[in-house]
Amino acid sequence: MAEIRTVLIANRGEVALRIARACRLLGLRSVGVYSEADAGLAHLRLVDERICIGPAAASHSYLDGARILRAAALTGADAIHPGYGFLSESADFAAAVERAGLVLVGPSAAIMRMMGDKIAAKRQMRRSGVPCLPGSDGALPDDMAAAQRLCDALGYPLIVKAAGGGGGRGMRVVHRAGALREAVETARQEAGRAFGNASVYAERFLQHPRHVEIQVLADRAGHAVWLGARDCSVQRRHQKLVEEAPPVGIAPGRIAELGAACVRACLDMGYEGAGTFEFLYEDGEFFFIEMNTRLQVEHPVTEMTTGIDIVRAQLRIAAGQPLGLTQADIATRGHAIECRINAEDPLHFVPSPGLVRAWHPPGGPGVRVDTHLHAGYRVPPQYDSLVAKLIVHGADRADALARMRAALDEMAIEGIATTAPFHRRLMETEDFRTGGVGVHYLESLDLETMTPRKDAP
Fold first, then answer.
1. Side-chain half-sphere of 123: how many Cα atoms within 13 Å?
2. Span 408-450, pLDDT tens digits
3. What residue ranges in 293-381 does DSSP mark as E strands?
4. Residue 368 catalytic?
5. Residue 74 neighbours by CB distance under 10 Å
6. Identified catalytic residue from 294, 316, 340, 397
């Protein structure tokens, strides 16, 4: 690992702690950056050097690439791990890192830029035989009459999506031809504000899909593997709340075909690092949504079922080391579930920052907690509300569910509201216990009683 000696961790919270631990495991020196609101973060006690990069506002600290690069230069870092969120999928930042002669733990700026453009990404996937939704081949034309003809031919319902981003922004569902113009214009305005790119495209809208994704690892020597699939269908407003592996009720052979297609796509584009291919699944068919060119929040469920440390693998690949395993070496075992514990009201999901007066994490066989929480920690209002990830692993799904219910009952946080009570209620619903709920499942429920809403879509 001669090329990398010091890794700057360009992130905060639980993922920064996760990366700091992986660096120590590999004998790498690590540098922690923090904003003025984050001087008490847990990973700062673990790193070899720490440096303040600015005020609390993310735009002047964690999202300021120039400040991150200056911190790297001042501390002698030769690699930067961006974690997830913030600059982790910024092709411009990746290019700046490359120009500075540093190593970004992730794919090249060129690959990141291509996968960040949803239209270019779909074209690349089609070339590699990855299944995609029927839709416009490119951006919808500015001429609304031409766009109308194209969408009419595609059929309704369809969804208009931003080419340059995700997370539900710049996205509109269109159920009839007469509603297209307003949807396109609104989506373009929103996409332009959010991503600086007003281009939108259209594709078929699925009514009751599940969200299934494939984790991959690829090295620069041209080797790639897939590490099983995850089901991330429990979402609220396009934000994942629960993830599990493997997906329930999908034949392993179908998953294997999809995994092989993802590996083929990695090799075709020269992908390097960890990545995730995201799909919608409905009526036995998979359809590509996007590729995340970074570490995912939900990576622990894959680690628990495969036994592979994905963050350590990322660092080794970034240092130019080979994967050291083939597809035949990878086997999944048991079932894993992750609940995201957010500092939010458990009924309305309103952020709940503040002082953590007491924190009692659960434990026992098959229970893992990834968190930066500690008693006395103050959750700042400026950042994402994720404060912990509760992950369990069992011999099968029923065993994992039992472990999750017990762990949620044991966990206690005082001083702030969290989503833990929501997860407790969810684990008791018959639909979730059965498995295979779709991405619109939570929209169909009264979240107080966890029973179907009378006005459910």
1. 12
2. 999 999 999 999 999 999 999 999 999 999 999 999 999 989 9
3. 335-342, 354-355, 358-360, 367-371, 378-379
4. no
5. 12
6. 294
